[in-house]
Amino acid sequence: MMRIAVLGNSHVACVRSAWDAVRDRYPGVHLTFFAAGRRGLADLLASNGRLVPGNSRLREILTRRSGGVAEIDPTKYDAFILVGLGLSMRRIRRSNYSRAVCRQSIIDAGKSSLSYSIAEQLQALSTAPVVVYANPLLAADESSQFVSPSVYETNLTTLRHDVFAPIGSVLVEQPSSTVVKGFWTRPEYCIGSAGLEAGDGRPGRAHGGQDRAHMNEKYGVLLIQSALEGTLGCRPKRGLADALPPWLRRVGSLRRQGHRKTGFSNSQPVRPTSRPPQQLGIDLDEHPAPRDLSA
Predict the structure, then answer these.
(1) Which of 217, 203, 197, 207 has its CA nearest to residue 65?
(2) I need a labelling partner for 129 at 20 to 30 A (CA). Which of 166, 173, 196, 264 fits?
(3) What are 19-29's pLDDT values in tens digits?
(4) pTM to 2 decimals?
(5) How far is CA 95 from CA 99, 147, 184, in A?
(6) Whole-angstrom Cα distance, residue 256 to residue 190?
(7) CB within 8 A of 186, min separation 6: which ones?
(8) Non-local CB neighbours of 5 within 8 Å, separated by 6+ positions
């Protein structure tokens, strides 16, 4: 079992939601989430080889959202994933500043982020890999103009090699399939985003249509895949059905059973039936309607 601690602020909400949908694809992986809004994790302190909450409020938040764990003991985790935590890509007009000034501005901003501070603390306490993801790019809207991809690449390369590599951490780019117009996130990955759950079973509050900074479960799935498969080398279970939520796997199972019983192949049309679901042997309570992940 590979045990991974995921640390973040509100941007980790999409990853937490996505993990519920895809955890069965990674039976050898266990994620523990340590999250607090905005700069809440800035109150983590290094003490006796652990990162511990510096106040009772943060201790309460971490305990609820992690499933009962308030202190981060690096010896208990095989890897760490940091999401958001104030690390942003910066758009700097090169026409106004020299290359050296632009580069130093990116470095200074990276080193002043909470993401860098926590990564540095973890690397001092553990030899386990620390994988870092910046805040997602803002979701594009009708006013978003094309930005040269070199702007993002300059940010990524500078932060990766001059900020995180020297302390032993790995900065990973935003999944390329989510990027549009060079420096924006495709809007479909923002629709239906929600905040951090309270940790008591209640879902996080929906952000609403005006929020372009936070992403949804679909984005979280891609981030998990990027971190686990692309960076940490975790091998998922093979087969499409293994990656699907339980309700969709049940539907697929019913369809396969129907094919075996009737002998129909994919090339043979199935005549529609007017019989109610109960006569077809389908319990509607047992097989709820699929969730719309884009909502």
Answers:
(1) 197
(2) 196
(3) 999 999 999 99
(4) 0.78
(5) 9, 14, 21
(6) 34
(7) 139, 140, 178, 179, 180
(8) 31, 32, 34, 72, 77, 79, 80, 81
